[in-house]
Amino acid sequence: MKGIIAIDVETTGISPEKERMIEIGAFRPETGEIFRTLIHPGRPLPEKITELTGITDEMLVGAPEEKEAIGALLEFLHGDTVLLGHNICFDHSFLVQAIRRCGFEEPEFAGIDTLKISRVLCPELPNKKLETMVAHFGLTNERAHRAFEDARVTAELYQCLKRMNREPELFEPVSLYYKSKKTEPMTPKQRSFLTAILQYHQLEGQYSMENLTKSEASRLIDKLLLAYGRVPYRH
């Protein structure tokens, strides 16, 4: 597995454009070298993320900022750009967004995805989540949904899948590309209408309009109208 880096990230949400990483874990199977760091996201953590990962706002106090963490990761990679992960495109998208935001030179990453391999080689399993695959092969992951532990067990899973010795082309790295989604900000008309809805139904404070995109504002307006009914409004 020379040149391969098993990697995993924990994040504040699922959108690489809007959300931020809170932890990176990486493991070089060839040498056993490890990389792990928490990252301060510059915002409070959603409760559901704390429930999932066990990472709290208090744990992130004093953690490195994004640029420091990404710089350290790039040094750890030493030019190795084949990333191994379970749904590696997710991890790659967050890494690329952070690299671009921080102004670092973007490596040409390739990836090996144990999720895709699992879908081909283990179709009989009810799902191919990492925890399902770990249990299926009798592996141990004492801290699921923590970046380094997930990265290390993914490397072990990769070896288990390789020992099945079928369809070797599945294990070849493929080039990874990520194109940022273009997002349009909420329009003044949407902001005005949304404000009217929230005021009319006395919902101020329950919904934040800050940083909403045009599509997000549209979905929120539809949701509120469905739940609370229409409001008298003239633009």
CATH architecture of the largest domain: 2-Layer Sandwich
CATH topological fold name of the largest domain: Nucleotidyltransferase, domain 5
Q: Please outline the major beta sheet.
A: 6 strands, mixed
Radius of gyration: 21 Å
Describe what this molecule looks like in 3D.
With 235 residues, the chain is of the alpha/beta class. The protein is built from nine helices and six strands; from the N terminus they run E-E-E-H-H-H-E-H-E-H-H-H-E-H-H. Strands 3-2-1-4-5-6 form a six-stranded mixed beta sheet. The longest helix has 17 residues, at 147-163. The relative contact order is 0.13.
Which labels suit this protein?
14% strand
Helix and strand topology:
Elements lengths: L3 E8 L9 E8 L4 E6 L8 H7 L3 H4 L5 H12 L4 E4 L2 H15 L7 E4 H8 L8 H7 L10 H17 L10 E2 L12 H13 L13 H15 L7
Parallel strand pairs: 1-4, 4-5
Antiparallel strand pairs: 1-2, 2-3, 5-6
Helix pairs in contact: 5-7, 8-9
